[in-house]
Amino acid sequence: MSPASGRRRLPPAERREEILKAATALIASSGFKGVPLDAFAAACGMTKAGLLHHFPSKDALLVAVLERRDELDLTNIAGALEPAKDPASARELMTTVVRRNLTQRPILKLYAVLAAEALSPDHPAHAYFQTRLSEGRAMFEHWILAWHPRPDLAAVELLAFLDGLQHYWLRDPGIDFLAQWETFADRFFTV
Amino acid sequence: MSPASGRRRLPPAERREEILKAATALIASSGFKGVPLDAFAAACGMTKAGLLHHFPSKDALLVAVLERRDELDLTNIAGALEPAKDPASARELMTTVVRRNLTQRPILKLYAVLAAEALSPDHPAHAYFQTRLSEGRAMFEHWILAWHPRPDLAAVELLAFLDGLQHYWLRDPGIDFLAQWETFADRFFTV
DNA sequence: CGTGTCACCGACCGTCGGGCCGGTCGTGCA
DNA sequence: TGCACGACCGGCCCGACGGTCGGTGACACG
Q1: Per-residue model confidence as pLDDT tens digits over A133-164
Q2: How far apart are the C-alpha atoms of B97 and B74, rounded to whole Å?
Q3: CB of A12 under 7 A from strand D?
Q4: Is B72:B156 a contact under the CB 8 Å cutoff?
Q5: pLDDT tens-digit profile of B120-170?
Q6: pLDDT at position A38
Q7: Could you tell me if A125 and A117 are in contact, meaning their C-beta atoms sit under 8 angstroms apart?
Q8: DSSP code of residue B165
Q9: How many Cα atoms sit within 13 Å of A185 on the Cβ side?
Q10: DSSP secondary structure of A23-87
Q11: CA-to-C1' distance for A11 and D30, Å?
């Protein structure tokens, strides 16, 4: 029994990854401000002081979590950069995205909880969500541009519906997310 | 000058009302957990101790705020209890509600911020929002029942869209809420 | 087997925030 | 005009939390 004491020593990269994973899960279930540093630390079997050795402050930890998520997500939206040529292919792409989101419940909850917390202008992630929102809208507008008569209205409508439906689904997993999506899409993608 | 000292003495009912109004505004802009008791008190020119004389605890204050809101709202939705007979009148009613919501930005923000905070099961308002959500959905389903082929899907779709759009609007007041609503309604109320 | 590095820890500090306690003073009523 | 009630306050306690500091022990390297 080499680790007779509970103390574990890991290479920094590995430990950072472990912390970020645990923090992501914790934030998703209980928010950021509501979770004390000790909890993040305990979740990977260490103390506050140990955790602060890897991240200089609690806020820095949050930033790292968000950056990690962005990094992981970027590998999956490469296809959406070009404007869609027609409604059918647009719908197909969106359906894929929706399906994928359905398998990532904790991640969605992370964003839902954090985005709400970050409504307060003094929240450490406020700016992050502010810019992310406008970028997202611009991207959608550009993507819809080719085939919809009012890309601006349509972009907001699509984003709002998906966002609202996700919130709903997070609070009540019983609803049939895909059916709801198809119903909406039937009308939305009919020009 | 009778109130030479800054001290004001009010009849309890009046003071309670003043506190609830101030608390509503404060919670809407900064959440509940994020605002210290002193802030609620200071907002109506008193101290923590004075406020706690009227509400036994901080949580009790929150409950009172929500109950007050419900009371005020109940006077305005009396018309919605009966199922709508046809899409046209349903749309008309909803448009009225939307218009009214547009004049109540702080209230909407209150609900948005609190509902997010209350996702944590240990939040004092968790149960409140849980029941409120399912009641709301049931009410809508019942209301839509008469004229829509799939009231269950439609209720969630309508609620999700409105909720999402409101969140969007809270973060970016620049969007044209009414235009977005009409666009959505054009399709939604066409059977 | 000695030695240095560094991941990690225990204990502590300052601050903040909720709630309580012993008053104090404004006010309706006799 | 006095008195009693109760709205309200100053000050305190205590637990929670973010962050610091001086170690300490696990592991590489010799």
Answers
A1: 899 899 889 988 889 999 999 999 999 999 99
A2: 13
A3: no
A4: no
A5: 888 999 999 989 989 989 988 998 888 999 999 999 999 999 999 999 999
A6: 98
A7: yes
A8: H
A9: 18
A10: HHHHHHHH-STTS-HHHHHHHTT--HHHHHHHSSSHHHHHHHHHHHHHHHHHTT-GGGGSPPSSH
A11: 22
The answer to whether the Cβ–Cβ distance between B119 and A112 falls below 8 Å is yes
Question: What would the pLDDT profile of B1-27 be if each residue is shown by its tens digit?
Answer: 444 457 899 999 999 999 999 999 999
Q: Taking CB atoms and an 8 Å limit, are A119 and B112 in contact across chains?
A: yes
CA distances from A161 to A57, A156, B10, B25, B71 (A): 36, 8, 47, 28, 29
Whose tokens are 């305005």? That residue is B76
- How distant is C1' of D17 from CA of B116, in Å? 22
Please state the rounded mean pLDDT for residues A20-45. Answer: 96
Enter the pTM of the model: 0.88
Nearest partner of B50 among B2, B18, B4, B3, judged by Cα: B18
Asked if residue B56 keeps its beta carbon closer than 7 A to nucleic acid strand C, the reply is yes
Give the distance, in angstroms, between residue B53 CA and nucleotide D4 C1'.
19
- Which residues of chain B make contact with A30, given a CB cutoff of 8 A? 120
Across the interface, whether the CB atoms of A30 and B162 are under 8 A apart is answered no
